Amino acid sequence: xxxxxxxxxxxxxxxxxxxxxxxxxxxxxxxxxxxxxxxxxxxxxxxxxxxxxxxxxxxxxxxxxxxxxxxxxxxxxxxxxxxxxxxxxxxxxxxxxxxxxxxxxxxxxxxxxxxxxxxxxxxxxxxxxxxxxxxxxxxxxxxxxxxxxxxxxxxxxxxxxxxxxxxxxxxxxxxxxxxxxxxxxxxxxxxxxxxxxxxxxxxxxxxxxxxxxxxxxxxxxxxxxxxxxxxxxxxxxxxxxxxxxxxxxxxxxxxxxxxxxxxxxxxxxxxxxxxxxxxxxxxxxxxxxxxxxxxxxxxxxxxxxxxxxxxxxxxxxxxxxxxxxxxxxxxxxxxxxxxxxxxxxxxxxxxxxxxxxxxxxxxxxxxxxxxxxxxxxxxxxxxxxxxxxxxxxxxxxxxxxxxxxxxxxxxxxxxxxxxxxxxxxxxxxxxxxxxxxxxxxxxxxxxxxxxxxxxxxxxxxxxxxxxxxxxxxxxxxxxxxxxxxxxx
Length: 488
Ligand code: FAD
Prior knowledge:
By secondary structure, the chain is an alpha/beta fold. It contains 14 helices and 21 strands. The strands form five sheets. Strands 1, 2, 3, 8, 9, 10, 11, 20 and 21 form a nine-stranded mixed beta sheet that branches. A four-stranded mixed beta sheet has the order 4-7-6-5. The mean pLDDT is 96. The structure holds flavin-adenine dinucleotide. Flavin-adenine dinucleotide binds at residues 26-32, 49-52, 57-59, 61-65, 174-175, 180, 203-204, 237-239, 261-263, 265, 269, 453-455, 466-471, 473.
């Protein structure tokens, strides 16, 4: 893709406007639908341009965690105390470095109202807690820990509260029919009941500008270029850049060849079209990292690096394990577990059964296992001896694993080869303010241009918690819709 295909086009050269609306939204995923609802409720005529043939985007394939807290009705019904301050303390510690304090404070303060908004628009949450290690609940439980809130170091920073809110969905199949589908479906129905128009198979390519103001977009429909006029504002909601090889190589090279939890349509075009008009970006190097280990097994075993040494607490949010592995261990990881713990883990439920593969190596002793794995002699044995010494006392002074998961490894042992078992998506994107206005590199808002979702830098600037993408995408999508309808 060259910048020539992205450069903004002056409105003066447009001879024929093919469509017109007050607010034009590119992308019909979570940010787009939330923007559409609020813009329509603010009285604007809204047109969504969606590149594929249906609504949903990555959101409809997602597990469905929405990160909400501060004492939501669901948290309270399940006996959890939380407050805006507590949630804010946790997020500031978990999602940095470089955490955007103003955005996080804003997001936390608006969380209870955002929960009500989702429920009011038909998003169902079942009053049930999933309290076991896992990427997400295996059934339709509505609440789970989704960011290591109850593990070190965060359980000492803020009082642990589960904040991953999952829309109720029976017969869930992650990546096909996850909770994200039950987030998108009622919202799309709400948008369309409000009179929002949608043009499918239309792909935004460039902005149309009049002086410093964005007044529309150029898009392609079935190979033909069309001009769409936005009387009040354009909202970019096209997703991130996980599938732009060039942008990943330029900004987040740790993800080269390993895009995950994203869709091919996340090719970064929304970001590029806006930066071609002077928009600023932020945190382009930050990435979410998924780790393809079974959390039920990880909590019961030990994770070691290429030197046979532990490097992270095994009972934390698996995304944190993924970041620790990819960023700090050269993507080298092995899970070591004894027979009893392995059997216990296999008897549990999981939302990710595809991670339950047979071990790569099995041996009668740690010494044999160490040799089979090709680790330096005594390296793994020393690690296991140290772990066992403290585990027998219910302690883990090195990494702070919770006592409930601590038991010395004994008897026959096995190891899983988890080298390279990571994938992820970039967290960076357009720099926006609290009204979802896209900021120029000068710091001033670009008139007529708004953005939300993964094409923006959201609340996560380094670390990640599950639910942050659907969370800030819907939260700032709403803001974008409202602000665009005002025509600022
Ligand atoms: P999307 O929801 O993907 O919407 C963007 C839309 O824009 C798409 O419909 C796309 O087709 C369209 N589009 C793209 N380019 C153009 C263009 N040029 N013109 C017009 N339209 C365009 N996040 C969480 O917070 N919680 C989870 O539990 C979670 N689980 C996940 C599980 C899976 C399997 C996957 C795939 C993702 C998961 N995510 C989760 C991530 C989350 O789904 C995305 O980050 C989120 O949907 C981003 O929102 P968005 O509105 O920016 O993008």
